[in-house]
Amino acid sequence: MSRGHSAALHGRVAVLSPHLDDGAYSLGAAISESIRGGAHVSLVTVFAGDPDSGRAASPWDQRLGFRSAGEAARARRKEDARACDLLGAVPIWLPFDDEYGRTSEDDEVWGAIEQAVGGANTVLVPGFPLHHTDHVRVARMALANGLPAGQVGLYVEQPYAAVGGEAPEVPAWLTPLVGAEPGWQAVRARPRARLRKARAWRAYRSQFQHFGYRSLVNVLRYEARHGGELTTLQ
Q1: Which domains, and CATH codes, for the chain?
Q2: Straight-line distance from the first to the last Cα atom of the chain, in angstroms, rounded to the nearest whole number
Q3: Predicted model pTM
Q4: pLDDT, tens digit, for every residue of 152-182?
């Protein structure tokens, strides 16, 4: 892994976030820094759920106090809107359920992703450690189909990477879709951008019940050790 820093993102950028927090947790500082440098960043959440759903909440959402999937989707979208406002990003919510809800066909999900990122110069996709089923699905779908963007990069997923603490490495199953192991670079972000990331992290109040300050500090330490938030963009 190269410890060299890449410049902040430029032009029209789309960050693919599997759930309502992943993109901000992983790239909040880069998003904030880039927007203040003139970039337009959309945070596209694929499994943002259905606010009108009456089905029972998933085991995860029940654990956080939600009674139905619709209640969870409404609350978590408000949290995401607040986090995006703090970072300066534009939230885009796709109405698909996560692994616990109604299964949508890949063609339907891919069509919505393709439309949501249309016009982006750069698209960032989850790339490591890819332990979660929904994250794997988004990465596989995006890279196998070929995103309509001039530049496509992977990003390190937080807080998952910080839990293991290892330097990023593309999973073996993903290698055929990206070629040789790409070089991971830290995205340059100033202290104010990192502070806005911490504030955005806390904006996801329902999730903060679980992750808390310890997880946030763990992520910040991981990023300090590796020079910042990591992507494969050169």
Answers
A1: 5-231 (3.40.50.10320)
A2: 12
A3: 0.95
A4: 999 999 999 999 999 999 988 888 888 777 7
